[in-house]
Amino acid sequence: MQKVNLQEKLSLINDHWNPRIAGELNGQYVKLVKFQGPFTWHHHDNEDELFMVVKGRFRMDYRDEASSDKETWIEEGEMIVVPRGVEHRPFAEEECHVLLFEPASTLNTGNVEDQFTRKELENI
């Protein structure tokens, strides 16, 4: 067993939209990433995703016919789960530090491949 200091690990990240693996359990990764600006619209066919704000805030934009809300602000200390199949796009006005929890097989850009796609992740 090894404890992880989230603030310490996040201080080692100097870029945006490039998740790092901070832990692994039961076929799931705990990832750390910094957001700034808009990400790519995408969805995941088979995976739900958990986003938890460690520092800052970001807006989750989404396209879901079942809901009238099309955006939700996630503040420091809050989390949101995006269900599989829901098209979404994180957006941060200012730098935001985020913990992600998702299956190890999850591609960060889901059904889209673009400049933000990271097929192989580094451990931090």
Give your account of this protein's structure.
With 124 residues, this protein is mainly beta. It has one domain (6-107): Jelly Rolls, CATH 2.60.120.10. Helices cover 5% and strands 48% of the residues. The mean pLDDT is 94.
Q: Quaternary arrangement of the chains shown?
A: single chain
Q: How does the overall form come out from the CA principal axes?
A: globular
The major β-sheet equals: 8 strands, mixed
Number of strands: 8
Class by SSE composition: mainly beta
**Which architecture name does CATH use?**
Sandwich
Mean pLDDT: 94
Distance between the termini: 16 Å
Q: Which key phrases capture this entry?
A:
124 residues, mainly beta, eight-stranded mixed beta sheet
Please write out the topology.
Elements: H1 6-11, E1 20-25, E2 28-38, E3 49-55, E4 57-63, E5 71-75, E6 79-82, E7 87-103, E8 122-123
Parallel strand pairs: 1-8
Antiparallel strand pairs: 1-2, 2-7, 3-6, 3-7, 4-5, 4-7
